[in-house]
Amino acid sequence: MESALSSLPDVDEELAGAVLSGLTRIEKRLTDTVAISDDMMAWTSRHLMDAGGKRLRPLVVLLAASMGDIADESVIDAGTLVELTHLASLYHDDVMDSAPTRRGTTSAHEVWGNSVAILTGDFLFARASALSAQLGAHIVALHARTFERLCLGQLHETVGPAEDADPFEHYLSVLSDKTASLLSVAGEIGAITSGAGEEVAAVMRAYGEKAGVAFQLADDVLDLRSDSQTSGKNPGTDLREGVPTMPTLLIRRRLAENPDERTRDIVARLDGDLSDDEDLAVLVDLLREDTSLETTLEMAHSLVGEAIEILSALPDVPARRALIDFTRGLVDRDT
């Protein structure tokens, strides 16, 4: 909870109190919602929840809801719904990406195997769906649409772009579906469940699409620049699994347009065997010094500017100022 509010150092005191209260209630609701008599599922479903996390998506729910009735019980259900959906997607993503760690702890599939990890993610999706049913048919439809986009984003990342497709457009569409969709729906249902109104909901929906992509582009850079102790993930995991990122796409384009020896070396390493930790570390070091990381950050900052511009349609209230600070923090971060 504190990690979520740390991105809002200058937040209005009254708003901070309301948000902290909401985050506390959501944390308890998360625990209650995944409670089950089955010992195995009770254990596996708490694995990532107990590992922590910033609860950024519930925070967006609450900031949007503060323009209505932030204390409404439906808002707490909405915040729990989006975090459960996010947690469920992490179980699946880690299987797809063969990620060894998540949030500083061993990934579920490394502990119990792929099947158990996938089934745990399915269980969390089921509990999230039950919550959406309590919030009404409109929220069910929004949640289903988001679930669909999460699946399509993962599918398109796995399959890759078609031969005649632009790899950059394809990659940005993957980020939009895999990351931005959930941030977008978080703000939207926060506005709806709090009674803030459709105009606020529409602004938050559009805002989340920009902010979510910016967040993931910054993550592409952090995956290379941070260490496992601060990020909770091993640097270069995407490289080892051959998952495209914006920096690697930029480097491949540079090779095609204006090849030089250093770029050829990097691409050869990207296409080579990275199962050895030393080989991976060499490539990570090369990429850390490459201009593609700064270019990716510039793209992220540009999207942050667009997201903040969208927020200008909201009333000039503490929540809008907090959202602006939050948005900047999505890119200017160390973890």
Automatic annotation (TrEMBL):
Keywords: Magnesium, Metal-binding, Transferase. CDD domains: Trans_IPPS_HT. Its cofactor is Mg(2+). The keyword Metal-binding applies. InterPro entries: Isoprenoid_synthase_dom_sf, Polyprenyl_synt. PANTHER family: ALL TRANS-POLYPRENYL-DIPHOSPHATE SYNTHASE PDSS1, GERANYLGERANYL PYROPHOSPHATE SYNTHASE. Belongs to the FPP/GGPP synthase family. This is Polyprenyl synthetase family protein. It comes from Brachybacterium kimchii.
